[in-house]
Design goal:
With 246 residues, the protein is α/β, with parallel strands linked by helices.
């Protein structure tokens, strides 16, 4: 594996029954790189990043994360220790307070004491700008606040890579920017990020590379400047025209 590559995806194929979701997908991600994956609904983008941390099993091909093959014995567990994931629907534990949501992983998986886990949780709640919400339950927060808690929870596990699966699509428009602002800060700090999103303003600001998927394949890749100014394929041009009209 190339020394600065933290993710290598090779000839990845995945089907759900008769429906081919991913077809011979190849993608390499370098340390510190921010990649935005976009494409129409059903193009395979969410399935792709869910394969990266073993939430979906692929049919053939291979994925290596930080030198660990997902198909190796214990590979999925080892990869998940390195990779944080933020979902569309927050996935917080409703019966736990915000700080309990954040401390559960570090205490169980990393063996931190309650005191150290609490200190770590408060550090990341400060970072996502909601330390005052620590003792509330998720139901008492706005959608934007819940998603920021979800990001902080992932960061408490000290991931090398962060995966985001349409993190703003369940949010009201006024809450989207507060989540994207946190993600922009993460990018500035050099976090390796793989982001499935339709937020093209965020892509312009943050992405080192954009990946356009359609029909389970990577159709086009390029820097934001390249793809916004001169998309190479009609499929990507049509997609951007539709997205940018909204």
């Amino acid at each position: 594996m190339n020394a600065d590559r933290v993710i290598e995806i090779r000839s990845l194929n995945k089907s759900f029954g008769d429906f081919q979701v991913l077809t011979n997908v190849d993608l390499n991600v370098s340390l510190g790189e921010r990649i935005v994956i976009c494409g129409p609904s059903g193009s395979g983008k969410s399935t792709l990043i869910r394969c990266v941390n073993g939430l979906e099993q692929y049919d053939s091909g291979g994925i290596t994360v930080d030198g660990i093959s997902l198909s190796a014995p214990g590979g999925v567990d080892r990869v998940r220790a390195e990779v944080g994931m933020v979902f569309q629907q927050f996935n917080l534990f409703p019966h736990l307070t915000v700080i309990e949501n954040l401390t559960l992983g570090p205490m169980k998986a990393r063996g931190l004491s309650r005191k150290d886990a609490d200190a770590l949780a408060m550090e990341y709640l400060e970072r996502v700008k909601i330390p005052e919400q620590a003792q509330k339950r998720p139901r008492d927060l706005s959608g934007g606040q819940q998603q920021r808690v979800a990001i902080a929870r992932s960061l408490c596990m000290a991931p090398k890579i962060m995966l985001f699966d349409e993190p703003t699509s369940a949010l009201d428009p006024e809450m989207i920017s507060e989540v994207l602002d946190v993600m922009v800060e993460l990018a500035r700090d050099g976090m390796t990020m793989l982001v499935v999103t339709h937020e093209m303003g965020f892509a312009r600001k943050v992405a080192d590379r954009m990946v356009f998927m359609d029909g389970g394949e990577i159709v086009e890749t390029g820097t934001p400047a390249e793809v916004f100014e001169a998309p190479k394929t009609q499929r990507f041009k049509s997609f951007l025209d539709k997205i940018l009209q909204h």
